Amino acid sequence: MELFNVIPSNMFSVFTSKNKEVYASSLLILRQLFKQEVMIEKEKLTSSLINSLEQQLYSIDMSEENEVDVNKIGKDALSLARFIIRKFRDTGWIEVEYENKTSFVEHITLPPYTIKLLNTLHDIVEEETREYSTYMFAIYSNLKQADLEKEEYRYTSLINAYDKTLELENELKLLYHNLRRKFNRLSVLNTVNEMLHDHFDEYQQRIINQIYLPLKTKDSITRFKGSVFAILNKWLKDKDIIDGISQQAAKYHHEEDDFKAKQEVLMKMYHIIDKINDLEELLEKIDIKNNDYVSSTADKMKYLLNSDKSIKGKLVKIIEKLAVEHEYGGSSCLEICKDKINFMYNGYVTERSVFTRANPTKLGDAEPVAINVFDDDVGSALGNQFILDTLNPYSTEKVYEFMERQLIDKNEIKSTDLRIDNIQDLVMTIFAMLKGDSSRSFYKVEMFDGMVQNWEYNIPNMEFKRRKKAC
After folding, report:
1. Pick from 23, 44, 243, 261: most CB atoms within 10 A?
2. Angle (CA) 329 335 336, round 5°
3. At 354, is the secondary structure helix, strand, or coil?
């Protein structure tokens, strides 16, 4: 079916209009009323638009509304709100009907496609943090209960498991593309504070805690995969069970052809098995992408922390910025600098300007420098230690050593009690937080809401605890 056989062809014209911001806000108000009311009275929608968007209504530009006689529309808020409702009716967002044959009270009716689009617009604007739905547990529990107790509901449980498998696939694809988006966004983050906000407030809260961790822990594919496959394989091997489920499918779809019903049942079973195997591979790709993102974030953080903060470095950046603006067009910054700073290039011409002879440095007599001689064992140890110190200053072992020094004889330590005396300690703290989830780590990290002040930086409110050793 073609898209514009379902929705009006001019439906999205409200988003290309000069008044698109007013129309978008009005649609969100329409959705809010739909959530609150079974039947939306036209006058109630009118008053809601006036109460919420009175100032925006006065900013409506009628110059492009060719189909409307502008002179017939008043300049008051009531007339403009009614104009918006007529606009939505003409573009197919809403339909208007009377309450009954003997009443003149008008009600707003929303077509099914409008309801879906309004919910999508709301989700895009709000970007609420969603709680993760336990897909694998739902698949397992549906099949397990039907296998042991509710034989007459086996086909229903199979449908639910099939749908949950598709939802899990969508969730993993969304997570994968979200990680790629976060990875690409690293290039536009230019300060330490931006990096910290993006990592702890956005990435850590919206991606790791809400989606990634549940997929790796309580709702792990590996955890429930074997049990789900065992139930499905048991059903596939038992002809009586397959026949029973096929009969349930035939009744469910009012299908007289038992062969088609059986084919559909088998298709759903094999699809669940194949898709879970595919999703396990996709989760491995997500692990790789997540590791790449964390590594790139750490590298970008080190670069920003170690970049030149001297007066010379700041002047170089200012001049580079002004040069780019001069090349691609002036800006307010460049105009202000023209009045305050006088940049010019000076030079002179002499007989040596065309060619400059190299002047070799003369070596004078000096006392020879004594060379320290070490024993072979000492020299080898010093050399190895130098290589270890310069190879990776932020290796896993060094991070664990840093945390051992922080904890000493304690079992736990809070963010405010960490000893952060320099930038090196701050970087180590960030790495310690990232490595807290590793099974190799001797400690774990518990995150709390908010930020705390430690040294010159705001860092997340967290607590490091030693893991209990297995008996």
Report:
1. 261
2. 145
3. coil
Amino acid at 20: K
Query: Letter for the amino acid at 11?
Result: M
Tokens of 43: 């006058």
Helix (H, G, I), strand (E, B) or coil at 451: strand
Are 130 and 217 in contact, with CB atoms under 8 Å apart? no
Read off the pLDDT of residues 185-199 as tens digits, 9 standing for 90 and up.
Answer: 777 777 778 888 877
Query: What are 1-10's contacts with CB under 8 Å, separation 24+?
Result: 6/113, 7/92, 7/113, 8/91, 8/92, 10/90, 10/91, 10/92
In a 3-state reduction of DSSP, which class is residue 192?
Answer: helix
Q: What angle is formed at CA 289 by the lines to CA 287 and CA 294, rounded to 5 degrees?
A: 95
**Tokens at 344, concatenated:** 């010019």
Instruction: Check residue 8 and report its DSSP letter.
Output: -
pLDDT of residue 318: 72
Q: Which residue type does 302 have?
A: K
pLDDT, one tens digit per residue, over 234-249 is 998 988 889 888 888 8
In this structure, are residues 135 and 164 in contact, taking their beta carbons and an 8 Å threshold? yes
> Which positions ≥6 away from 285 have C-beta within 8 Å?
176
Q: How confident is the model at residue 309 (pLDDT cuts 50, 70, 90)?
A: low
Whether residue 413 has pLDDT greater than 90: yes
121-167 pLDDT, tens digit per residue, is: 888 777 554 556 788 888 998 899 888 877 888 888 899 999 999 98
DSSP three-state, residue 467: coil
Quote the pTM value: 0.52
Bridge partners (DSSP) of residue 71 are none
Q: Are strands 40-41 and 106-109 parallel, antiparallel or unpaired?
A: antiparallel
